[in-house]
Amino acid sequence: MKSPSQGFGRFALIGAAALLGVCAWSIPTLSNGQTMAERLGYPEGRAVVLLETVDVGFCPEGNLAAEAALKCGAVTSAAVLPNAPWFEDFARRLRAQPDADVGVNVSLMNPFAGLRWRPLTAAESTSLTDRDGYCPKTLTQFLSMATAEDVGREIDAQIAHARKHGVEPTHLSAHHGSVYGRPDLLKELLDASRRHWIPAVLVDLSPERLARFQAEGVPLDDRMTALIASYTLPTLDELVFAPRADSYEAKKAATIETIGKLPAGLTLFSFHPAQVSHAMDEALGEEWRQRVWEARLLGDADVRDAFAEKGALFTTWREVMRRYDGQFERQAEIEEASAIEPENAVEGE
Predict the structure, then answer these.
(1) Is 192 helix (H, G, I), strand (E, B) or coil?
(2) In sequence order, what E strands does 169-254 have?
(3) Measured between alpha carbons, how far is 222 from 32 in angstroms, rounded to an integer?
(4) If you compute the radius of gyration of the chain from its CA atoms, what whole number of angstroms results?
(5) What structural domains and CATH numbers belong to the chain?
(6) Whole-structure pTM over 0.90, yes or no?
(7) What is the pLDDT of residue 346?
(8) From CA 101, how far away is CA 86, in angstroms rounded?
């Protein structure tokens, strides 16, 4: 079977760029120039890291690796695919970790030829399925077919399905950056984020970052940036994926180098850990080996030491939202207090 790994480089580029946004969080008491981490009250100048395992729920080997990483604290959060075939298995495993930080990785496309799954609303959202009734295999196919109405319906269905099985989502993202390819589809995700009060995974689009991605050919038009500029929930200062490499040692060296270069601010550092599996190795080839190596990285003492040497602080999406909601509560108290007239005020004074 041909490995799909050749297509993952393009998916990674689109997915990384797709998560970019213009930070528009505007609590009046905050000063300009601060990182999102500083705005949320984390120490100034520190790298604050959400260490996450993603793509959870599509196979048992990935579920086991994610469960172990959450249990031992090797990661601080996970992102699940609610319509994937092994989602309910992972949801059952989470019952032993009820406070685990778990988000919904909305799955609307799927590049794994040997592991297919369907939208939860397949019967009514016909623009989200290929001719065989499954999620489209390519981003191009998905973007050419999907209607905003169907995407919005599916996002709500995946959130509801997660909750039905005991997973209260702490954040929202899109598998392979699917909805970020069109402004009308991104609007559906951001509307769901506001409606359910669940932060979406978006990165502050600095002028430097915008120039870099435009140079790489990533389509970021005015409609997209204007849409995200109105988004008011917390955003990220940076998004990092575990680097790919030709061997474990090379991957480890690249990961340690990446950790050393983490900027100040709130960073989402994503891994795709999985256990060794001959069947999955045969089906996915190089892509599966990368995932097995990423499981090793999460348990590697040298990687942990690199984070410690960097002085990185680890956090969760729950903590991010506690801090964010607290800012609004304090601001409301200030505004309420300032609106109260002095008790002994004399008319006309």
Answers:
(1) helix
(2) 172-174, 203-204, 238-241
(3) 23
(4) 21
(5) 4-339 (3.20.20.370)
(6) no
(7) 42
(8) 18
